[in-house]
Amino acid sequence: xxxxxxxxxxxxxxxxxxxxxxxxxxxxxxxxxxxxxxxxxxxxxxxxxxxxxxxxxxxxxxxxxxxxxxxxxxxxxxxxxxxxxxxxxxxxxxxxxxxxxxxxxxxxxxxxxxxxxxxxxxxxxxxxxxxxxxx
Length: 135
Known about the structure:
By secondary structure, the chain is mainly beta. It is 5% helix and 26% strand. It has a single domain, classed as Coagulation Factor XIII, Chain A, domain 1 (Distorted Sandwich). It is built from 1 helix and 6 strands, in the order E-E-E-H-E-E-E. The longest helix is centred in the last third of the chain and has 7 residues, at 96-102.
């Protein structure tokens, strides 16, 4: 996947405003011990227009740093080299408004990715990104 493009579809109901889109790679080759995962975040800003009203509830919001800890599943992953073990993405579930229209699931498990290289693209909304509102 070297040099491959990644695409994401933002929720059609996302309220207008200024946002930060955070993409994060978590390198798991040392994640079998506490403090071993390596984090490589990147962000970009965007502005959403329109009259949509979708937004997360206050209990669905997180802050960085602090959204997850060194002992959370997906950060400390002692079985990450076993392809039969389901990987659990760290962080909160996908906000309810994202799944409301699509009727999707908030499950974040991915089968067998632990044995496919030392870096995982770990993202949230729609499986690809975290969107944070700028106030």
